[in-house]
């Protein structure tokens, strides 16, 4: 990478970090291009040097943050684990990450961030699915999982966990949320072909948090 390209990428990433905060706080639908340019304290020409539109800003900042989260989770995931334990750890790390960013997620779930939220869920599903699929494939080779389509199964698991279990989005009450999680555990066992009660730790954690 040349010095010019490195400087370009560093500056663009710096802007993307600011853009993330803009969309989270003000809301994607409420944010105009003129507001972005003013808040970034840059000229229109300079802005178009890095981005072509508001939508590209959103897509790029979501991609950057999803990649950061994925790398952080990979670093936290212990090496040498059996597939069943590795999947459990991956889920636990995900729950911990969600809990630590609860206020931010509530802002993402606001009506003014509907499009941003949809884009984020799609990005998380696409970026994280290969990691889940890798663990599922390991579990198949170890004889603890029984799955014909690992990647597609991983995508379904992530879609359920990120969308259906989003209590702020669906306005589930606490009692309903626990029941949804228990149902998810049951579905997860069946979809990967795991033993009964393999994932019942998820609802125990949710109950403790409540």
Automatic annotation (TrEMBL):
Residues 9-69 form the HTH tetR-type domain. Transmembrane segments: none annotated. Coiled coil: none annotated. It comes from the Bacteria. GO terms for molecular function: DNA binding. InterPro entries: Homeodomain-like_sf, HTH-type_Tx_Regulator, HTH_TetR, TetR/AcrR_C. SUPFAM superfamilies: Homeodomain-like. Residues 32-51 bind DNA. Keywords: DNA-binding. Pfam families: TetR_C_39 (PF21303), TetR_N (PF00440). PANTHER family: ACREF/ENVCD OPERON REPRESSOR-RELATED, ACREF_ENVCD OPERON REPRESSOR-RELATED. This is Transcriptional regulator, AcrR. It comes from Clostridium scatologenes.
